[in-house]
Amino acid sequence: MQRFIVFEGIDASGKETQAKLLSSFFTKKGFEVLLTHEPIYEEPIGKVIKSNLEKKISLSSETVAMLYAADRYEHYLKIKKALEENKIVISDRYKYSNMAYQGANGVDPKWIEEIEKFSLDPDIVFYIRVKPESTMKRRKEKDLYEENLEFQKKVFDIYEELSKKYKFIAIDGEKSIEEIHRDIINYF
Ligand code: ADP
User: Fold this and answer.
1) Which residue(s) pair with 129 in the sheet?
2) What is the pLDDT of residues 5-35, one digit of tens each?
């Protein structure tokens, strides 16, 4: 059984919604689940990332990519522990977000792959595939850092490439929340 599950996609594609539904699905079946997300803005490295997103400080995209990789490595250690405790881990975003977002900011994707190679690969990545235009109506406060449609389009294009390269399971995110959930649980 696949126990390390990741959700990826552009802002407001429905990752958090589907991660929560999948977590409840497994909990009801009696599994222990670690439902988690990235970046972790409350943690020391995440705080620096947040300051940069809020434009309180101004860091280069390469530095930001390294900060995301560092934040993730700390996160990965928690994920590893949960997997060793036989939990199912569901993460809203993982290293592919660094490739998509910092890639859209002009950082060489190969270099990002290199600095991300220390974190374990997930068993399965659900890529919630939604056109950037469709998500603009759905945006919430947490997404406001990346509000620009042109930027979201660049991120979307990189996700399309990553999806092929890393064999993501692409899920049609334009459907209703319930339909998408049904499509996802078909894989278990
Ligand atoms: P993400 O974690 O990818 O940013 P969320 O799960 O937080 O996305 O969803 C963003 C917003 O869009 C929320 O208000 C959520 O209720 C809504 N939403 C999620 N999935 C769908 C869907 N399939 N159709 C319409 N709205 C959705």
Assistant:
1) 172
2) 999 999 999 999 999 999 999 999 999 999 9
